[in-house]
Amino acid sequence: MKDLMQQYPSEVRLVIRYAPFHQGSEQVVKLLESARQQDKYQAVLEAVLAAQPQWADHGNPNLELAYKAAEQAGLDMLRARADMAAPTLDAVLQQDVQDLTALKVEKTPTFFVNGRALPSFGHKQLAELVAQEVSNSKK
């Protein structure tokens, strides 16, 4: 994604939606949204994703390791834990789950480009779809 965004800096905008399919993923979504409130979203997202092999056992995640990665990325965890309890974050999760259902998303990652689903997963396929959509937008 970073390569595509660099290739098309004014044409491509990345929108991340949450798919809390696994145990503990709702807490990680709330962690990321609390990072957004502290203007630390990008740094925390990258840190949590980099640490994912250590914390994200889908049957038994170790969320404290995700929280530690977020804190190392600069997140104020005391404030984040308070923010994570806010009902507004439950609404964010609920909306994303409703959208996942409507779009029939069943796995992650799933990519859409201008509403078009990526027909088969792969970097090449995504690059081709993005290039096609950028070309179509210039016509």
Short description:
The chain has helices at about 1-5, 25-35, 40-50, 50-55, 65-70, 75-85, 85-105, 125-135; strands at about 110-115, 115.
Strand order of the largest sheet: 1-2
Instruction: Give the helices and strands as they follow along the chain.
Output: HHHHHHHEEH
Considering DSSP H and I runs of 4 or more, what fraction of the residues is helical?
55-70%
Residue share in β-strands: under 5%
Using the alpha-carbon principal axes, give the shape.
globular
Mean pLDDT: 92
Count of DSSP-assigned helices: 8
Largest sheet: 2 strands, antiparallel
Domain tally: 2
The parts where pLDDT drops under 50 for at least 5 residues are none
In angstroms, what is the radius of gyration?
16 Å
Query: Structural class, please?
Result: mainly alpha
| Amino-to-carboxy terminus distance | 24 Å
Query: What's the total count of β strands?
Result: 2
Structure, explained:
It contains 8 helices and 2 strands, in the order αααααααββα. It is mostly helical. The chain folds into 2 domains: 54 residues, no CATH class; 64 residues. A two-stranded antiparallel sheet has the order 1-2. Strand 1 and strand 2 form a beta hairpin. The longest helix is centred in the C-terminal third of the chain and has 17 residues. The model has no long low-confidence stretch (mean pLDDT 92).
List strands and helices in order, with pairings:
Blueprint: H1 2-7, H2 25-37, H3 41-50, H4 52-55, H5 63-72, H6 77-84, H7 87-103, E1 112-113, E2 116-117, H8 123-137
Antiparallel strand pairs: 1-2
Helix pairs in contact: 2-3, 2-5, 2-6, 3-5
